[in-house]
Design goal:
This protein is of the alpha+beta class. Helix content is 29%, strand content 27%. The radius of gyration is 22 Å and the shape is globular.
Length: 325
């Protein structure tokens, strides 16, 4: 039996193919919550917008060929890496770039003004996603973090390795793939480095070096509001033991409990950045200490739910479906 949808809708702003968003939309639909799902990349070519500022922050209609929503009725926004608006190719430069900027400012700026729950606002998400800003806040909230160096100086990198006195890794400062001219996309993995191979190429851009943390396993800790969902990740290959993202087929999963101090630390971290969601990566040392590497404020989680049964989608839907005060 299909449940009748009624009440304030939720905007789901994401790419066309997004398994995590699919799960959240299904959960919201089961709860009878209307959903307007769209990709900003379809605006304005395949979407229309007409809103007016008056008694409400913005009142009016956002619509595509199949759905429409009144913006003053929206209760929450789930935002997950949509494309940017793209105007018609009939426009030539400099008007094409200018018009794209106008479309982005009009659509996203209007949605920003709505007094609703966000998971997560992209401006806040962007600030929180950079590792240099993450680690000090984590340490300030009682989380253990690895000794780290950001540098463009090869000699500073060599001295750091010597001071650590053990294995050192190099990893990207932020996410994102390498995109080649032929269309190929590859990730940049965490790499154990030989200090003797450090050369002047370090000076070409900022590099992040960290002490290697001995670990019995790793944990993906997904936080929704104040609910925490922890999954152990056990690596079954040499490459996965350095970076588990390089060999998903070699991974095994198990659900685990979260120590009270870690729970308090990640909730404090999210509160600092005013986020409602975060996907944290931890190593668990052989003696049981949890060491935080990073948090992806818009990280993937659907594969963790599928592997472990953790009810992440249901809790996200619950957070988005909360009535406005």
């Amino acid at each position: 039996m299909t449940r009748r949808l009624s009440g304030a809708p939720v905007l789901v702003v994401t790419k066309e193919l997004d398994p995590a968003a699919d799960l959240v939309v299904d959960e919201l639909t089961t709860r009878g919550v209307p959903v307007m799902r769209f990709d900003m990349g379809d605006f304005p070519r395949a979407m229309s917008l007409s809103v007016e500022h008056g008694a409400a922050p913005w009142a009016g209609v956002l619509a595509d060929a199949y759905r429409s929503v009144r913006l003053e009725e929206v209760r929450a926004v789930y935002y997950r890496r949509p494309r940017l608006p793209a105007v018609s190719g009939e426009l030539r430069e400099p008007h094409h770039t200018w018009a794209n900027e106008q479309a982005l400012a009009g659509l996203l700026g209007m949605v920003y003004a709505l007094p609703v729950t966000w998971v997560n606002r992209p401006d806040v998400d962007g600030i929180a996603s950079h590792k240099p800003g993450q680690l000090p806040i984590a340490a300030a909230h009682g989380l253990r973090t690895p000794r780290s160096l950001i540098t463009t100086d090869p000699e500073a990198a060599r001295k750091f390795c010597q001071a650590v006195g053990g294995p050192v890794i190099c990893k990207p400062l932020m996410g994102g793939p390498l995109e080649y001219p032929d269309g190929r996309r590859t990730g940049v993995p965490t790499t154990l480095i030989d200090p003797d191979t450090i050369d002047d190429s370090v000076s070409l851009t900022a590099h992040l070096f960290q002490e290697w943390v001995p670990k019995s396993h790793e944990v993906r800790l997904t936080v929704v509001g104040t609910d925490v969902f922890a999954a152990e990740i056990h690596a079954g290959s040499d490459t996965a033991r350095v970076d588990w993202r390089t060999d998903y087929d070699a991974l095994a999963y198990d659900v685990c409990e979260v120590p009270d101090d870690v729970r308090a630390g990640v909730l404090g971290w999210l509160e600092h950045f005013r986020l409602g969601f975060g996907a944290f990566d931890f190593a668990v040392t052989p003696c049981g200490d949890w060491v935080m590497f990073e948090c992806n404020p818009s990280g993937e989680w659907s594969w963790i739910q599928n592997r472990t049964g953790l009810p992440i989608a249901g809790h996200l839907a619950g957070l988005l479906a909360e009535e406005r005060p």
